[in-house]
Amino acid sequence: MKSLLIVLFVAVSSLTTFGQETSTMNGTYEGYIDGAYVFSDDEGYKTEFNNVTSEVIAEYDLNGQKFVGRQFSITFTVDSELDEDDEEIQVSTITGLLMPI
Asked: What mean pLDDT is predicted for residues 71-96?
């Protein structure tokens, strides 16, 4: 029974991410600014992420100041959604964070 539940969980999890491409980048965490998680790359270009998965938040408290100024390897997805004016917007979600040793 336990094996069946694990198989079902993996199957459902894979269906929810089917078709979503993940990307990665390296960046320095600037903080949670105006409702977005902001990272900057080596050239100073800032990237804003709208959402973070619960797994990432459980490991890294990005709402506090502890990780500001720290380097990360960021894995993320970008989805298209309609805003309140029915215009298509890009919504980016951090799905994984790794801090280099």
From this structure: 90
CA distance 32 to 87: 25
Helix H, strand E, coil C: the string for 34-100 is: CCEEEEECCCCCEEEECEECHHHHHHCCCCCCCCCCCEEEEEEEEEEEECCCCCEEEEEEEEEEECC
The closest alpha carbon to 54, from 6, 100, 96, belongs to 96
From the CB of residue 75, how many other CB atoms can be counted at a distance below 10 Å?
17
Q: What percent of the chain lies above the pLDDT cut of 90? A: 64
Place of tokens 């799905």: 95
Give 98's contacts (C-beta < 8 A, 6+ positions apart). 72, 73, 75
Say which DSSP state 21 is in.
P
Looking at every residue in the chain, the average pLDDT score rounds to: 83
Angle at 48 between CA 82 and CA 50, to 5 degrees: 45
